[in-house]
Design brief:
Layout: H1 10-21, H2 23-46, H3 53-57, E1 59-65, E2 70-76, H4 96-102, H5 113-136
Antiparallel strand pairs: 1-2
Helix pairs in contact: 2-5
């Protein structure tokens, strides 16, 4: 099969070069990282505080998956444990962050992660779309 050769449209050629160089990917990754930072900061503001351990464990994470040419971003908590063991066989140790976010039979839910995501979803999407627009020009 002979090689493909594009003749003429310099704008198209420049855009294809940017794609192959990873410039678009790097720009989107930076926007995604900024987005996870925004969500984490909002979650920390919304998090109920007793000792501060839960709030301090809120962490943004972004990573590139080179095998699949993808990237991901998420915000998580380290889930400081309650030191309580399950009352029946087979149940895993209870986690404090889950109990705070979703509630349990001892406490009402005090969501902080999901509301932070909902409040900032459009902003993060706009950051990524803007990154695509800037680089694709």
């Amino acid at each position: 099969m002979p090689p493909i050769k594009v003749i003429g449209d310099k704008e198209l050629i420049n855009k294809l070069k940017k794609l192959s160089s990873g410039e678009i990917r790097d720009s989107v990754y930076a926007a995604l990282r900024k987005g996870t930072d925004i969500i984490a900061a909002d979650a920390k503001r919304r998090c109920p505080v007793d000792t501060g351990a839960l709030r301090d464990s809120i962490t943004p994470k972004t990573f590139k998956n080179d095998e699949k040419d993808g990237m991901n971003g998420y915000v998580y908590c380290d889930y400081p444990s309650t030191e309580r063991k399950a009352s029946f066989k087979g149940q895993k140790q209870l986690y404090y962050a889950m109990a705070v976010e979703y509630g349990n039979r001892h406490a009402i839910a005090q969501p902080f992660l999901k509301p932070a995501l909902r409040a900032n979803r459009k902003r993060v999407i706009a950051l990524v779309l803007d990154a695509l627009k800037v680089v694709s020009k």
